[in-house]
């Protein structure tokens, strides 16, 4: 979790969004050494929650979880798997996250 950012993957993400007819949302998570783990995972979790529960005045409507595809490569792939584990565990425990009031 130390190099690159969403701009380095923009051409590939754009192509995938076009091929699938979907939209893309890339997360610019904080990197080490300034922000040690689990900061990057928390950034990804917050980004996911912002899709589900956008704040008042957001530029998008809430996105249903079944319409979200989470993916990544290298460190982003690791974060993808960790985020999915967090989401599954929250669902398993029946934890409801209250967001924006």
Automatic annotation (TrEMBL):
Active-site residues from the entry: 74
Keyword Hydrolase part of the UniProt annotation: yes
Cross-referenced SUPFAM superfamilies: alpha/beta-Hydrolases
GO terms for MF: hydrolase activity
Keyword Metal-binding: no
Protein keywords: Hydrolase
Domain Alpha/beta hydrolase fold-3: 5-89
Family: Belongs to the 'GDXG' lipolytic enzyme family.
PANTHER family found in the cross-reference section: AB HYDROLASE SUPERFAMILY PROTEIN C4A8.06C, PUTATIVE (AFU_ORTHOLOGUE AFUA_3G11560)-RELATED
UniProt-recorded name of the protein: Alpha/beta hydrolase fold-3 domain-containing protein
Source organism phylogeny: Eukaryota, Metazoa, Ecdysozoa, Arthropoda, Hexapoda
């Amino acid at each position: 979790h130390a190099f690159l950012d969403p701009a380095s993957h923009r051409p590939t993400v754009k192509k995938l969004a076009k091929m699938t007819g979907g939209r893309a949302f890339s997360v610019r998570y904080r990197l080490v050494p300034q922000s040690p783990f689990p900061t990057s995972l928390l950034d990804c979790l917050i980004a996911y929650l912002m899709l589900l529960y956008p704040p008042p005045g957001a530029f998008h409507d809430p996105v249903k979880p079944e319409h979200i595809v989470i993916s990544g490569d290298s460190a982003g792939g690791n974060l993808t798997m960790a985020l999915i584990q967090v989401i599954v565990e929250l669902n398993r425990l029946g934890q409801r996250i209250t967001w924006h009031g």
